[in-house]
Amino acid sequence: MDLVHTLRNGRGMRVTISARDASLLSWWAPDRYGRMADVLAVPMRASLPMDCLCDVVSDTSLLLRLQRDGVAERLRYRLDDEGCLHIDYEATALNRARITLPVPAFNLRGHEISVGDHILSLSADRYFPCKAAGTMPLDVAGTAFDFRQPAPIAARLAWPGTRCAAGLDHVFCLARIGELREVVKIVDPASGRVLRFFSCGRQLHVQTDASRFFLAPAALDLLPGHTVRQTLVYRLGVADIDALGISEKINQET
After folding, report:
1. Are the beta carbons of 119 and 244 closer than 8 angstroms?
2. Which of 65, 106, 120, 225 has the fewest CB atoms within 10 Å distance of its CB?
3. What pLDDT, on the 0 to 100 scale, is given for residue 249?
4. How far apart are the C-alpha atoms of 237 and 82, rounded to whole Å?
5. Are 45 and 23 in contact (CB under 8 A)?
6. CA dihedral 117, 121, 124, 127 (to 10 degrees)
7. Residue-wise burial string across 48-69, b where 16 or more C-beta atoms lie within 10 A, e elsewhere
8. Which residues contact 212 (CB under 8 A, 6 or more apart)?
9. Do the Cβ atoms of 217 and 184 come closer than 8 Å?
């Protein structure tokens, strides 16, 4: 069986998916001038051995069934002409299990260059400090981690006392839990590409390094015989730079 499948839409986008572990391998998308580039790096989760079955393949949709460590997983991918990649996930566990979805690494510039100028908006009013699991969440107001208004990532990391020069590595508590809604918007001023991320989850782990960023939904805990369902949507498009409403300095050089 072919372990790599490519979805296409009417805008020329191409998304390549591994049937081995359901990870996204590439996402080719146009910038504001129509130039195509792959905005994905490698996924965070390493490829794991598992049984896989591809039930449905078309130019715009893919249905995968995976079996690993006593968990039966079903993932449906759909790429529409609006640039939305819909991921419908369902898992049933035979034993107690904790499940993490494959997390793609993005660079909207399309190559290995800093994501510090990427402009982040995040619908979260509380956060957990870096590597501070088990602590109480803190209010984002008045801190470098208040992205309720858009701000360049590097500018916030440079705030005095931030102490995370290597990048963000924080869990944010999302607003309006229980409904599928836009929780993140990230714009690259140089290319004009904008990524919107939709989730119905309670928390989101936002991680950045020199050339990538990750948006990781919270892990799913399953009891034996229980089933969990989750829907995620990534939407790629282009933005009007003059309409971003940024008050902090950005660098628009390519």
Report:
1. yes
2. 225
3. 47
4. 8
5. yes
6. 0
7. eeeebeeeeeeeeebbbbbebe
8. 41, 105, 106, 107, 115
9. no
Confidence at residue 50, expressed as pLDDT on a 0 to 100 scale? 57
Per-residue tokens: 48: 């794991």
Alpha carbon distance 161, 190 (integer Å): 29
| pLDDT tens, residue by residue, 80-99 | 999 999 999 999 998 888 88
* Residues 248, 240: Cα–Cα separation, whole Å: 17
Show the tokens assigned to 41.
């790096």
pLDDT value at position 57?
A: 78
Residue 181 — very low, low, confident or very high, per pLDDT cuts 50/70/90?
very high
- The residue whose two tokens read 């069934």 is 65
What the block records as the tokens of 188 is 């690259």
Q: Following DSSP, what letter does each residue of the chain receive, concatenated?
A: ---EEEEE-TTS-EEEEETTT--EEEEEEE-TTS-EEE-B---SSPP---EEEEEEE-SSEEEEEEEETTEEEEEEEEE-TTSEEEEEEEEEESS-EEE-----EE-TTSSSS--TT-EEEE-EEEEEPTT-TTSPPEE-TTSTT--SS-EEHHHHHTSTT---TT--EEEEEESSTTS-EEEEEEE-TTT-EEEEEEE--SEEEEEE-SS-EEEEEPPEEE-TT-EEEEEEEEEEEE--GGGS---S------
Tokens of 163: 């102490």
